[in-house]
Records
---
Amino acid sequence: MKTRRQFLGAAAAVLGAAATGLRAAPVSRIELAATDVHVRGYPTVEALRWIGETLERETEGRVGLRLYHSGQLGRESDLIDLARFGAIDIARVNMAALNNPFPATRILCLPYVFDDTAHMRRSLDGAVGKEILSKFAQRDLVGLAFYDSGARCIYNNKRPIVAPQDLRGLKIRVPPSDIFMHLIRALGANPTPLPYGEVYSALQTHLIDGAENNWQSFHTTRQFEAAQYWCYSGHSYSPEALLMSRRRLDLLRPDDRERLLDIAQRSVGYMRSLWDESEKASRDYVLARGVQANEVDRAAFERAAAPVVARYREDAAVDTYYRAIRELSGKA
Ligand code: GTR
């Protein structure tokens, strides 16, 4: 496998050739580079692997996929730019990393917008999801699909959290999104933005006291070894996005382009079944290793988060999405 440096060097060479007007000789096979910050076995990585195998089979070997998992090619905010410029083909990133450059994604990360996983899936599969996916075209990307990322919950190594006041004074890591900064602050804690790959050591060295994520990330990064108090805050469902470089998609012949778009959509069902199984498995795994999980005063969390939602809803586009999503709530 290529190292990150070799890969980026090769990518720069390709971009350089494109810039000087050289045309690559026609090749019979295209190998797409896909990235993910998660490890092998994680549902998003396995969904990419499935896409690669299916593409290979259905294009009769014309299109393949090389998978760079475990953050080998860098942090998510950089991967988004690499995909925009065509230095990588497919980037699987979380919506949180897209909130600042793509305002349409903000609604999907706001606290307590979705009631549960079923509500989130209904919303993403419907008109709202389709419209948000189409917005990536504004910046040289193609939104291929959404994947689940479960309910994000807060965990820390100091004490059990039941109400927002228990968070006072704690340093909580957040992904690179203003929404998460505002939310953690509204809950009374101190937000610390850090790349995903640095959270485990930041917990160990007490640079931070806690973080927030889903069961599978908490498990597979082994953060559970350094933070044993989990609370079911379920404050955001911030889903995953599967994005492709527009210019790289355009290099495929038209029928293979359609195949790829279709395969990416078909991978959603496969990913969801992996997600549901692994969520339970990860939870059981960490609970069996000393993690203590408790319910929270959900009404108090929602009250504390409400000003963040209200502030973002001042934007008319966010408010329209908000209403459309709430209409799909099972509770309505
Ligand atoms: C995970 C997500 C990653 C990454 C990470 C984070 O749930 O799957 O893509 O965004 O959270 O918090 O940085």
---
Amino acid sequence: MPDFSDALVDRLSRADHVAVLTGAGISAESGISTFRDPDGLWEEFEPQELANVEAFLDNPELVQGWYRHRRQVVEEAEPNAGHRALAALEAHVPAVSVVTQNVDDLHNRAGSSTVIELHGNITHNYCVDCERDAAPGTVDAAIQHGQPARCPDCDGLIRPDVVWFGEMLPPDAVERADAATAQADVFLSVGTSAVVYPAARYPVVAREQGAYVAEVNPDTTGVTDAVDESIRGPAGEVLPVLVDAVADSDGGAEPTP
Ligand code: BV8
Ligand code: ZN
């Protein structure tokens, strides 16, 4: 049984606004490797070696191939009980903002209504020169012919719509994440090692701004010492039990799926 406090349940059931920072760990139970686990075909690469503009320009086909592989994994994956519990929390809290570092689209597919994608979304590609959206399948077709995918309109290289190391985060996403953090009565940090900035600063900023901050992770992280409560366990087990406890405490409602 996950060990969270009655105080957390009480605060969640009385909260007007809950903000949740998620990282790769919440998608681990959907079969999507975190950045730490060996990732099969790409085991010999550090993500930082591929998730940056220099690597892309140096070898566009390799980087396009890596993201195509990851997109295929994402397309075959399903949201898990952790993603679904965050969507279900919306029945008990007036405003739930999911601020995610993940690019796998699983929070959207789980039905969360406010998903702020700090690092973009791997299901979307665009041309680096004219910025036109790339039609689905553009990368697949080029890679299968052993060449980098290029824009049919201007011949520019096609890239995934994700934020690479050294790139600025989308200003509108940062603005929305800042607002959600400032308004949060409770801030949850779920499945993130909290080492990548500026995303990793949100749990600390939330606490400075008066939120009650709890972390859900099987391990300790970069913010474990900075939060009010650290719940040791996998998101797919902890979050459904936590949301059920909130449902029970506010007069009960439908159990989480
Ligand atoms: C920026 C999208 C301004 C792409 C990602 C030098 C030069 C330039 C920049 C820097 C520099 N030094 C530092 C920086 C800043 C840099 C940074 O923070 N680097 C780190 C490595 C030190 N940040 C940036 O570059 C950002 N931009 O700063 O712009 C700027 C501009 C120019 C110069 C200076 C500054 C952009 C960062 C975004 C990078 N893009 N992703 C893609 O996905 O391919 S980052 C990527 O890695 C993820 O999005 C995520 O953010 C990060 C991994 O973190 P996690 O999600 O936490 O995953 P991780 O595997 O680490 O941890 C998983 C956790 O889950 C673990 O704790 C595990 O215990 C737990 N877990 C496992 N199973 C479960 C579980 N938890 C719950 N349940 C389970 N079942
Ligand atoms: Zn173009």
